[in-house]
Amino acid sequence: MLAAGALLVGCSSGDGGKAATATTTATISFDFSGDAATVGGKPLKASVIADTLAVFEAAPGALEQAFGTAELHQPGTDQPDPLIVADVLSTEIAVRLIEDELARRGLQVTDNAKALATTQVDAFFGDSLDGQPAYKQVLADRYAGYVTLDQALTGPPPSDATLRAEYDRDPKAFDLACSKHILVKTADEAKAILTELSAGGDFAALAKSRSIDTGSGANGGDLGCSARGIYVPEFETAVWDGPVGVVQGPVQSQFGYHVILVTDRRSRSFEDARQDIADSLAPEPFAALQEWLTKQWADTPVTVDPRYGTWDRDSGRVVPLGMKDDGVTVGSGPAPTSK
């Protein structure tokens, strides 16, 4: 599955970084002249790889975020790491496939897709690409294209009839329970808190001062309202089967001992639950794009110049020259291949 940072520069594997560490018995030298690959018969210039590497050489923080390493070069040399070269080329191949499909379908990138893309690039790289604004814009434009194609491949959202059928299948699945809790380490601490509450103690004040769940504790123990099935079994039973408005405890779970107060429990109409149902039926972001890309990798003729490795159409990645289980070794490389 494509992660948020996938396909930005060298994360086409979806792992957000380098999948392995290369070791070399000798330096592999790269010449970024001519074509690095062909995609569907169209050339992909090797200079694109060199330009990308130059950006990351000037932005080491972005390099580490994209590839999981702060070192661009092979040890003791000025030559780039073959795995990074292969990652960049893998991404460029995927980009060509996506851009060609956008053009074939006549799809226009929307303002919403552009805004989302800018947000994602900023979130992924932070300020590490601030010194490379032109390249940062390239990434945002690309990502907006990915969003646009993914939405086109995904198709329209579920109809009202589909949403209604999901609701009618089990209306109780959309009930809500609202609760607060105070979490402590021992049963004796929980019993002491119960005694203080019985004597008129303030639940919110005790949660703030005593709960080891600092997140909810800062909010007076408030956990908000939630549907069934999100808590550990012991807590779930107390929230859904215990009395409303009555303090319960101690309730032991893997996290410690809870003092629990259910403040409300209610059913929801279809209209109230509509958005949650739509969200639950929505596919994962980029699921459709990933499925489409997997098919393109298998069906589109792709050749890779042996200076950079070989093309593995099953994974949609360039395998660096001479890659073996123990790393990268020097070799002459096979002829350009689409498999």
Characterize the structure shown.
There is one protein chain. The chain is of the alpha+beta class and 339 residues long. It folds into 2 domains: 167 residues, no CATH class; 102 residues, Roll (Chitinase A, domain 3), CATH 3.10.50. 44% of the residues lie in helices and 16% in strands. It has a 4-stranded antiparallel beta sheet. Strand 8 and strand 9 form a beta hairpin. Helix 3 packs across helix 5. 35% of the residues are buried.
Overall tally of structural domains: 2
Say how many strands there are. 11
Main β-sheet, spatial strand arrangement: 4-3-6-5
Give the amount of beta strand, in percent.
Answer: 15-25%
Number of helical stretches of at least 4 residues: 12
- Distance between the ends: 22 Å
Q: Low-confidence runs (pLDDT<50, min 5 residues)?
A: 1-5, 12-24, 325-339
Average pLDDT score: 87
For the biggest sheet, the summary is: 4 strands, antiparallel
Radius of gyration (Å): 27 Å
Shape from CA axes?
Answer: elongated
Helicity, as a percent range: 40-55%
Structural class: alpha+beta
Give, in order, the helices and strands: EEHHHHHHEHHHEHEEHHEEEEE
List its salient traits.
single chain, 339 residues, alpha+beta, Chitinase A, domain 3, 2 domains, four-stranded antiparallel β-sheet, three-stranded antiparallel β-sheet, 12 helices, 16% strand, elongated, disordered N terminus
